[in-house]
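Good day; I would like, with your permission, to put a structural problem before you. I would ask you to consider whether the tokens describe a fold that such a sequence might reasonably adopt. The full record is reproduced below for your convenience:
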Amino acid sequence: MLYRVLTVATILFVVLLIGRVYVQARPAASSPLPVAAADEPRAQASTRETAVFAGGCFWGVQGVFERVKGVVDTTAGYAGGTRDTATYDQVSSETTGHAESVKVVYDPSQITYGQLLRVFFSVAHDPTQLNRQGPDTGTSYRSAIFYTNDEQRRISEAYIAQLDAAKVFSSKIVTVVTPLKGFYDGEDYHQDYALHHPENPYILVCDKPKIGALKEQFPELYREYKGK
């Protein structure tokens, strides 16, 4: 596993491999994916709903969604395992069942669940990579949607089927759609990591391109983010 807290020696290693890693880590889609044919209507009044997505390192996924209009809050954390194993050290052992995940709290009067899915599949990660994302390997980096209700499950499964049928990716989508049994906040130092460490080589290579893709592909949804 590529350690993300990089020393001077590993910085040199990353620079030497930057071309290959960028190809692995960049978003899979070079243009916005089709709009979700099955989606929920915009809510008439402002309220709060929660979505949970896993797409590799949670730094980059959080970096994308916290810059989406209509998203009220994001938290990097863990889903898929139990509370007692929801720590970074344990999850990194690849024995807990957890995936690095991001909880997205959003206002459904401003953005729909289907629009969040479109961002997730277009720029937040590559949904065709099985149990890995870019240089990070293991089931904790799997592509997954943890749904909180049957409507989210229906929309997610329909959108994956829609994208596979349209063959928008060169390979089949491997994203797992599974019920959310619990979300556990990650350690404080992981929160807004890309914002606070913009010069970290991992962020520059793996996550900054995702934020750039969001701004380019979804200018109507993009917003600047300065932190909580």
